[in-house]
Design a protein that fits this description.
By secondary structure, the chain is of the alpha+beta class. It contains 20 helices and 12 strands. A hairpin with a 5-residue loop joins strand 6 and strand 7. The radius of gyration is 26 Å and the shape is globular. It starts with 12 loop residues before the first helix and ends with a strand. The relative contact order is 0.16.
């Protein structure tokens, strides 16, 4: 017998209006009590108790659906410590999804619960209402405020829309066409530097830490394109910005106290006021980064006065928005936060994805050879439009890298109002009931695992864990289920909805430019062979690292391609 899924009760408008009226009556009674006699007070209290009972009954009619899920592994921390310690949470979430369905509940710190979605329909619904009905968690926002500031990552609702609108023109396709030559010129510096290193070595090849170089090219290209400022990283110029960004993003091994405070603060941010060495370090780093951002602003303002440019730079738009009319105006604090946000995003997330792209083509010589053949067949330096549409295998390599190696691991939101989330397939609740949607009460925490969705076998098929660029070129390579994912190219790597990554076109253009220059001119191999083990280590994001290396390094043997 087929079980029919029953949707949870959705409160009617009449019920919600009734509850609102009762609350107003309750407030009126409180005012009367303050001026009443003892008999009146007793009578009023009895009435208030009755009203309170009715109000609670109305509110209890809408409750978060209690779902099945994994058992807690810690009385205090639930499964939070296990997730925090793992470098592959995507696999953990996927295994739970196989057991409990496309929506389930996980125990977190001090009895808190989090609903996890591994469902394209549910994810699309939630992310489409991002910044309004669903917002960042209090803990995450407090961390963001203390480290980077109240920029795009922090803001919600109208504030987010206003900030996003202030810089959107600097990331559209028209602007990218103008910025493409600057990105290519920066990547050419990598080519020249690697050729010089190979010549200096004298053996025909050289071992270089490609992760370091990808951070350099990312910082320099965005500095020039976004802020009209050359950090000079690729020329070996002493650079305080690199030391600050590395300190922010580099993995660390906090002591027990620091690690415990960090984990608890994600759920109870007030604990960030407890003095720890990690909190002190981030406070100093933010102060130093603010000094550097002030220098960038002063440099941009001076440049605009001396030689106004027709090009729409990011920092120029921010300065212009700061002088805008009231209501649309961006404050100086928001300008600073935006600069910190964009610098961190370009230096950390884009560089990480470029590093993973080089790792995969070094691991897969056949992919590297096929990509080189496509790039060499073109000949001249490609334009932005040609890079975007003229190299199908390059596009496939980039898309597969974004699918398998997302820099962002989780999208965690909190319901700011009662809601009902639809599901693409029914799930069984804790009571045994089967439902095709779940009720979430205001304050409910909801998570989406990006790698759990991007590499899900239920969504991408049995070869979902394999790095296989050809899937993007095959008629049925992107499964029907994967096509239900609403993110960019059916991936959640850049998020989706109002909070989707604003710089995704810049990031993709930069990755494609790096690959086109590097693969045409060099042959890349893992220093210790194609089977070299690479792990992901946790900092603010997950950085790749060759197992056994001191520090965060990805050494590769590089030689010039001779044809």
């Amino acid at each position: 017998m087929k079980i029919r899924a029953r949707a949870p009760h959705r409160p009617s408008q009449r019920e919600m209006d009734t509850a609102s009226t009762l609350v107003r009556i309750y407030d009126t009674f409180q005012a009367l009590v303050r001026s009443a006699s003892p008999v009146d007070v007793a009578t009023g209290l009895a009435a208030l108790w009755a009203l309170r009972t009715v109000i609670q009954a109305c509110r209890k009619r809408f409750r978060t659906t209690r779902l099945r899920g994994p058992k807690s592994t810690s009385l205090l921390f639930g499964v939070a410590k296990d997730l925090f310690a793992s470098s592959d949470t995507g696999t953990i979430f996927e295994e739970w999804s196989k057991e409990y369905g496309v929506a389930y509940e996980v125990p977190m710190i001090f009895g808190k619960k989090r609903i996890v979605l591994c469902d394209p329909k549910a994810a699309a619904y939630l992310l489409s209402k991002d910044t309004w009905s669903y917002v960042g968690t209090t803990g995450a926002k407090e961390h963001m405020s203390r480290t980077i500031g109240k920029g795009l990552f922090w803001s919600e609702g109208e504030s987010h829309r206003r900030q996003r609108r202030s810089i959107a023109p600097s990331f559209n396709s028209t602007t990218m066409r103008k910025l493409s030559p600057a990105i290519h010129k920066t990547v050419d510096k990598v080519k020249a530097a690697w050729e010089a290193n190979i010549d200096a070595d004298g053996s025909g090849s050289v071992v270089l830490d490609v992760e370091k170089w990808m951070h350099y090219v990312s910082l320099d290209s965005f500095g020039i394109a976004g802020f009209s400022y050359d950090f000079g990283s690729l020329h070996g110029k002493p650079n305080s910005m690199i030391s600050v960004l590395d300190a922010f993003g580099a993995p660390s091994s906090p002591n027990f106290w620091d690690g415990t405070v960090l984990l608890i603060s994600l759920f109870y941010p007030i604990i960030l006021n407890v003095p720890t060495s990690r909190v002190a370090m981030f406070t100093k780093l933010r102060a130093r980064m603010s000094e550097i951002c002030e220098l960038l602003i002063d440099n941009a303002a001076k440049e605009q006065e001396e030689a106004p440019s027709e090009r729409v730079s990011t920092i120029g738009l921010l300065l212009k928005a700061e002088d805008g009319v009231s209501g649309r105006r961006v404050t100086r604090e928001e300008v600073m936060a935006q600069i910190r946000t964009l610098l961190f995003a370009s230096y950390e997330t884009t560089a990480i994805m470029m590093t993973w792209a080089l790792i995969e083509i070094a691991r897969h010589p056949n992919v590297q050879t096929k990509l080189r053949e496509e790039l060499l067949s073109f000949g001249e330096e490609p334009s932005y439009d040609q890079l975007t549409t003229g190299f199908p295998y390059l596009d496939a390599v980039v898309q597969e890298t974004l699918r398998v190696h997302s820099a962002v691991q989780d999208l965690i939101r909190q319901a700011s109002e009662d809601d009902v989330i639809p599901l693409s397939e029914p799930v069984q609740t804790r009571s045994g009931e089967v439902v095709d949607s779940i009720a979430v009460k205001c304050g409910t925490e909801i998570g989406i695992s990006v790698p759990g969705m991007n590499r899900s076998e239920a969504i991408w098929g049995p070869d979902a864990k394999m790095y296989r660029p050809e899937r993007w070129l095959e008629p049925d390579g992107v499964t029907r289920k994967a096509q239900e994912v609403r993110g960019y190219r059916h991936l959640l790597t850049f998020g989706d909805g109002p909070r989707a990554c604003i710089g995704k076109l810049f990031a993709i253009a930069e990755i494609k430019t790096v690959l086109s220059v590097v693969v045409k001119n060099f042959v890349l191999e893992m220093r210790d062979g194609p089977d070299t083990k690479v792990e992901a280590v946790r900092g603010i994001t997950l950085r790749p690292k060759v197992v056994g290396e001191d520090g965060i390094k990805v050494p590769m043997r590089i030689r010039q391609y001779k044809g």
